[in-house]
Design a protein that fits this description.
alpha/beta; seven-stranded mixed beta sheet; 11% strand
């Protein structure tokens, strides 16, 4: 495994510094101190690599561990949706090979799939390969920044020891000597995401000769980015999982038993957990404490938290330590779930000490337990950070050890609310935390919420959302204009027919309901009353009729693709009449009538069950 040493940093600064400086010097004549530039670059590499290679995890919570000591090589694929097809599995051991052969990358994957670890490894690998000057940005830190993205980037470099005047810095960006790692775009506050997305895209387009790697849980905000290609994280194979566990510094007997069980069928039974680096660590943690593993995600996190509460310093013989706060398991779980809900609904993942203490102070006053109300906030934070490993301190900031724990405890908090509260909470959360259309990027929060209490989730989320949708006056035109955002038509020449395609609107309320319905109901035998998958294609009769009309307007003479916003397209009365008159079959075969049918049967079934229950009593 590559190791970044002071010697490597010195040679790196000499090789990359001279090439970068010579390019800039031709633009800024009064810059002539190349030695200082190289010294600053060397200082930056030493500071950055030391910060990035030292990480805390569930097993290394007190003393940061060198990432090279336990890093398991991770892989990517271009297409993870078609499971019938043998998709190319891409090796990520060399950042230069990866970028030169596959171009700039947008890395997408579940929470806990290893995106950040991969990016940190590639950062360090770029130094070892003397490839380009690496710049690693945790985009969540942009949440508290008030300037432009360029200023944020410049300040981040200066804070890491790379002192450059802004004019000089902007010139270095033209030297094609940089590789930028923009990590965890999904952790940027929702209200800042659109502006930051535009700024990053403009930055990448302007300085396109450099290299770029971005990571995100989902990718809908990057669909129109031509500068990056989307690749998805590949889950750990059984061999990968065994290799990762073998590198973790824990009690040998415990490790050996877990590895043997992985080989003997544990990996196959729990593949959805064991193929995720984070969940595999939680599996090991839970296994070591209880020797049993639950099947559901909510129970999985609950057992993990129990293991952390009752055991400490899991790299040794599970030494028990008394909590500073003196809170019981249920008390600390209760206040922590309140903290998690408050911060999750705000999309807040990073805190200063004062911010986190302020949240704790505010939330503990709302609890009815005197012990919780009077607990010392500093001691509670120490327990959450040091004893329970829920927070990791990085520099002056505190972060959740992983967002999935925040999501789990936020779900626990909501589950403890009454029906009235839940029906008020969920619509507001759905606006901020939509259920993503891609099933493999479904937020843990919603999956956990469903698993904790499916009946309440169905009543208070799915049925409630269906009711809200169908209180509106829905017609085919309204459905069409909401479902699609853009229409494209093209033809190579006058002898070829027009091609017509519709772009799905990612913010469609109809699509959201369909996704909500299918993600949870379709895969649940208890609630499945034969819904069919939502059709994203217009009925062939509608398609052919629109094309015939367009050809009559001589659209076939165009030699390239033309697009229109769907609202502009539907201003044409003839188009509207075609969709209304020819679209009835298409409307009938869409998912919405099936959803309405399911709702009627579901409510009848629920009422019938209640009557039977009362009769039985």
């Amino acid at each position: 495994m590559d190791i970044v040493t002071s010697t490597v940093a010195s040679l790196f600064a000499k090789n990359l510094g001279d090439a970068t400086f010579s390019t800039v010097k031709t633009k800024i004549r009064d810059i002539n101190n190349s030695k200082k530039f190289n010294n600053d670059l060397e200082n930056y590499i030493n500071i950055s690599s030391e910060r990035i290679k030292k990480v805390k995890t569930l097993f290394y919570d007190s003393v940061p561990k060198n990432i090279y000591d336990f890093y398991q090589p991770l892989k990517l694929t271009k297409d993870s949706f078609n499971f019938e097809k043998d998709n190319e599995i891409i090796d990520t051991s060399s950042v230069s090979y990866l970028l030169e052969n596959y171009g700039n990358l947008l890395i997408v994957g579940h929470g806990g799939s290893g995106k950040t670890f991969l990016i940190k490894y590639l950062f360090l690998n770029s130094i070892s390969e003397y490839y380009k000057i690496p710049v690693y940005l945790e985009l969540r830190n942009y949440n508290e920044y008030n300037g432009t993205f360029i200023d944020y980037l410049h300040d981040s470099l200066k804070n890491s020891g790379f002192e450059m005047e802004k004019e000089f810095f902007l010139e270095t960006l033209k030297s094609n000597q940089f590789i930028f790692f923009f990590d965890a775009f999904d952790e940027v506050y929702p209200e800042k995401q659109k502006k930051l997305s535009i700024e990053i895209k403009n930055f990448c387009n302007r300085y396109f000769r450099n290299k770029f790697i971005l990571s995100c849980r989902f990718s809908e905000g990057f669909n129109d980015w031509s500068v990056v290609s989307e690749y998805r994280m590949v889950g750990l194979t059984k061999e990968d999982a065994i290799s990762l566990v073998s590198k973790i510094d824990i009690e040998e007997k415990w490790k050996r038993e877990f590895i043997n069980d992985l080989k003997d069928g544990l990996y196959k039974k729990y593949k959805s957990f064991a193929s995720s680096p984070l969940l595999l660590n939680i599996m090991l943690l839970t296994y070591g404490a209880t020797s049993t593993l639950p099947d559901k995600l909510d129970k999985f996190y609950e057992k993990a938290f129990e293991a952390l509460y009752y055991s400490h310093d899991l790299s040794k013989n599970r030494f028990r330590r008394k909590l500073e706060s003196n809170l019981t398991y249920e008390q600390i779980k209760k206040i922590f779930s309140r903290i998690c809900f408050k911060t999750y609904q705000r999309s807040q993942y990073t805190f200063t000490f004062d911010e986190l203490i302020s949240v704790i102070e505010y939330e503990k006053k709302k609890e009815d337990s005197k012990n919780i109300q009077e607990v010392d906030s500093q001691k509670l934070l120490n327990d959450l950070e040091i004893n329970l490993c829920m927070f990791v301190k990085e520099g002056l900031n505190y972060n959740f050890v992983h967002r999935s724990f925040q999501e789990y405890f936020a779900a626990i908090f909501i589950d403890n609310r009454n029906e009235v509260d839940q029906k008020r909470i969920f619509p507001m959360l759905l606006e901020k935390k939509p259920i993503i259309g891609f099933i493999d990027t479904l937020e843990n929060f919603w999956e956990i919420m469903f698993e904790i209490n499916p009946d309440r989730f169905i009543d208070n989320v799915i049925v409630s959302q269906i009711n809200n949708l169908f209180t509106e006056n829905i017609g085919i035109i309204e459905y069409f204009s909401d479902m699609y955002s853009k229409i494209s038509y093209s033809s190579d020449d006058a002898n070829n027919p027009i091609g017509l395609s519709l772009e799905i609107n990612p913010n469609s309320k109809f699509r959201s309901i369909s996704n909500l319905f299918n993600n949870f109901i379709e895969n649940s035998e208890k609630y499945n009353l034969s819904p069919n998958l939502f059709s994203e294609e217009v009925n062939k009769e509608v398609n052919d009729s629109i094309i015939t009309y367009l050809k009559g307007l001589e659209y076939e003479r165009f030699s390239s693709t033309h697009s229109q916003d769907i609202s502009s397209f539907l201003m044409n009365d003839k188009i509207r009449s075609i969709i209304i008159s020819k679209g009835k079959n298409w409307w009938a075969t869409s998912n919405l009538p099936r959803i309405l049918e399911w709702k009627v049967k579901y409510e009848f079934s629920r009422n019938d069950n209640k009557t039977t229950f009362l009769d039985d009593i």
